[in-house]
Amino acid sequence: MRFLHTADWHIGKKLHGYDLLEEQADAFQQILKIAKEEKVDAIVVAGDLYDRSVPSVEAIEVFNRMIVEMNLQEKFPVLAISGNHDSSTRLETGGPWFVQSDFHLNTRLDQAFEPVEMGNTQFFLLPYFEPISARLYFDNEEIRTIEHGMKEVVTAMEKKFKPDMAHVLVSHFFVAGSEKSDSETKLMVGGLDTVPLSLLESFDYVALGHLHGKNALQAENARYSGSPLKFSLSEMNQKKGVWIVDTEVDETRFEFKEITPLRDVVQIEGSFKDLTAQAFYESIDRENYLHIQLTDRAVIPNMMNQLRQIYPRVIGVERLFGREEQQKNNETKKEIKTLAPTELVDQFFSEVTGEEMTPQQQVWINDNLSALHQAERGK
Length: 379
Description:
The protein is an alpha/beta fold. The chain is 33% helix and 21% strand. It has three domains: 2-258, Metallo-dependent phosphatases (Purple Acid Phosphatase, chain A, domain 2), CATH 3.60.21; 265-321, no CATH class; 331-377. A six-stranded mixed β-sheet has the order 6-5-4-1-14-15, covered by helices on one side. The longest helix is centred in the C-terminal third of the chain and has 19 residues, at 359-377. The radius of gyration is 23 Å and the shape is globular. It starts with a strand and ends with a helix. InterPro entries: Calcineurin-like_PHP, DNA_Repair-Maintenance_Comp, Metallo-depent_PP-like, Mre11_N, SbcD, SbcD_C.
C-alpha cells in the first residue's frame, strides 16, 4: 500500500513570539494536495500534533479543521500517535469513536500492541512513552531506560507480525546517531530517550517523529519526516516536506516530497544604512521571518523599531563586531544546552561537594526527574 508520512506539526507553536497558525494551515493544505496527487491510501502523523500539552483554543480549532477536512471530507484514513509535546490524556478524548471514520489515534502504550491492518500492511502505532509506563505494563522493575523498554515493546510487537504482510512502526523518539536542531525539546534524562537503530531492524519501515529535519537519520528502513515548517534559525537550510512510502512484503520504497513555506526563515547581513535603503529591502521578500546580522559598530538609537517598520517579522538581530567573544559565549551556552538534566545535577553536585555522585544517587535522580517530567506532561 501507499501512505504519506508526516510528523511534528506543533500546532500553536510560535516563532520568537510570532503566531504560525496561518503558516501551519498553509503547510497542511500542501500536505493534503500531495496526498491526493500521490493517491495515498492513508496518512501517518508520527506525534507532536500540538506544541503544548494544553494547546490554545485557536490551535485546537485549526487542528480540528485539519482532521475534518483530511479524514471526514477527503476520506483519508489517518494513523496518528501522541508525541512528547502532546498531553496523551487530553488528546485521547474521543478516541473510541474516531476509529469509526478510520482515524486511529494511539496515546497509550497498551494500545500499540494491536496493529491496524490496511491493505498488505500492519501498522504498529507506538506513542511517546517514558520508562515508567513500560515498567508498569510489562511488570518489570528492571526497565529504567527507553532502550530497555523498547526491547520489550519490539519483542511483544514481533509476536503479532503476520509473515505475509509488511510491518510499519510509527513512533516518536530519538534514534541513536540522529542529529537534533535547536527547536527540538531536549528529552534526554541520563540517556533515557535514546533508542539504538538495531532494535528497529525487524520493521519494513519506521515512520519517526521528534526530530525536525528529514536528514536527521539516514537508515534503509527508518526516516524522520521532519516538521512541515522551520521552527528555528538552525533549520534555515532544511528542506521541509513529507515522505511517500510504498510497502510490499519483500520491498519498501520511499520518496520525499517537498513543500514550500508560506513565509521562509532567512538570514540577511549588512550595515544599518544598507538594510534600510529602499533599493535593498525591495529586492528581498520582507514577509519572511528574518534574522539580521548587522555590521555596524556604532550604537544605533531606536534600531529595532526602525528595522521592524521595514521588516515586520524580525526574529533576531546579531552584531557581527566582537564576534569572537560572542562565539565563545555562544559555545558555552551551547555546551550547557546539550547537557542532560542528570548531567547538570551531577556537575552541580561535584562543584558544590567536590565529590562524585554514587550510582544509587544517580538512580534516585533519574527516577525523580522522570517522574517530574511525566507529571509536567500530564498537566
